[in-house]
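Posting for a labmate who doesn't have an account.
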Amino acid sequence: MAASLPSLTVYVVTPEMSPAIALRRYVSADENAAIELWRRTWTHHFPHIDFDARVSWWRERWRQELVPTSVIVVAELSGMLVGFVTVDPKSGYLDQIVVAPEYWGTGVAGALLGEAKRLSPGGLELLVNKENARAIRFYEKHGFVYVGEAANPISGRPVNRMAWRIGNRPRSD
């Protein structure tokens, strides 16, 4: 499947940032860095949840559910993984977009989301925690619209269902 997808693009996230953030396809050697980035980022955003205790569960989910079915694109800077996105191009489901907290607001997430849109031009759908106002604003800014409510199938937490289709207008703030 990977051979049939177009090559990735290198993005310069900010004019001052050199070298540029590079987006590339995930390889198995990225696993430990991606899992640690997931743990660190989610711990930063939700410090009241023990993500250290969830690492073995996440590693199993990563290996069994995401790697086999998703295209995973990583963002790196000088060889260090600073973000990733997972998207199932068959269903258009975006399961994860993770960016190191020190790169929030720099354009890394927007570059990863742009790549996800390119990989799934028919549209994207995702679930976002209702309490994650920062992420909801980010998705709305990038043309996602609210399409309903649900419960996270793993945690049971309330989530918003959001979708992007070509033609959705980004929210202007």
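Reply:
Got it, the structure tokens are right above this. Helices lie at 31-45, 55-69, 108-119, 133-141.
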